[in-house]
Amino acid sequence: xxxxxxxxxxxxxxxxxxxxxxxxxxxxxxxxxxxxxxxxxxxxxxxxxxxxxxxxxxxxxxxxxxxxxxxxxxxxxxxxxxxxxxxxxxxxxxxxxxxxxxxxxxxxxxxxxxxxxxxxxxxxxxxxxxxxxxxxxxxxxxxxxxxxxxxxxxxxxxxxxxxxxxxxxxxxxxxxxxxxxxxxxxxxxxxxxxxxxxxxxxxxxxxxxxxxxxxxxxxxxxxxxxxxxxxxxxxxxxxxxxxxxxxxxxxxxxxxxxxxx
Length: 261
Ligand SMILES: Nc1ncnc2c1ncn2[C@@H]1O[C@H](COP(=O)(O)OP(=O)(O)OP(=O)(O)O)[C@@H](O)[C@H]1O
Ligand SMILES: [Mg+2]
Known about the structure:
The protein is of the alpha/beta class.
């Protein structure tokens, strides 16, 4: 199982949108995909629970806080769609947030290890801000990817985030963590300063800025409970769909995951 965390300390930059689409892309490649929601806002959980083919299942399933305690013994992630299972956000996470960080990291690693033989891909969505849950997610993941808007405050948030990634790597909490860098999101082609910021970021950060870009698209904003590339009429040929598929292909390429596993 390869685990990727979608993170940026800045809010509203497209973390959940990307986490959702990375998960849908895993499903598209027929990878058994585990989605974990570490954000108490629970947007990722909501989207997956709203999937059309999600059978309304009210039985008890494994929740995010259970990864850190023994309350989930015997429970399983919730099946949401073919090849897509969810560990939902829950209020128990607040206790984890206030508890001992090292204990959370050790328990989280152990829990992921025990789930890893059932899945090919694990996608973790986190809340904005610096939190124990963010550090825990970075400590148990193989990869981190950061969506970022072409906006000064978002870039400042990103720099702070990269310092935290380096800390996790250097303090040997997770020396194996590979940062895939930044995915520019919500770029508006009609705004000269967006294009200028993109140019400057690429000049300064080189390959740490992914070649793929997600542009500001209404179709992405409305596709909350389905992949943007799939509409009621089937596969979409929209620019939004094409760009999202390209972005996901680029991320999977960096994780060395090929179609057909
Ligand atoms: N490329 C895009 N084009 C248009 N709208 C987008 C795009 N990316 C994200 N959005 C919209 O922007 C809003 C914020 O996105 P999202 O919820 O994914 O951000 P987030 O980083 O997870 O936010 P939070 O920090 O609150 O968790 C959402 O309404 C989403 O639909
Ligand atoms: Mg979010």
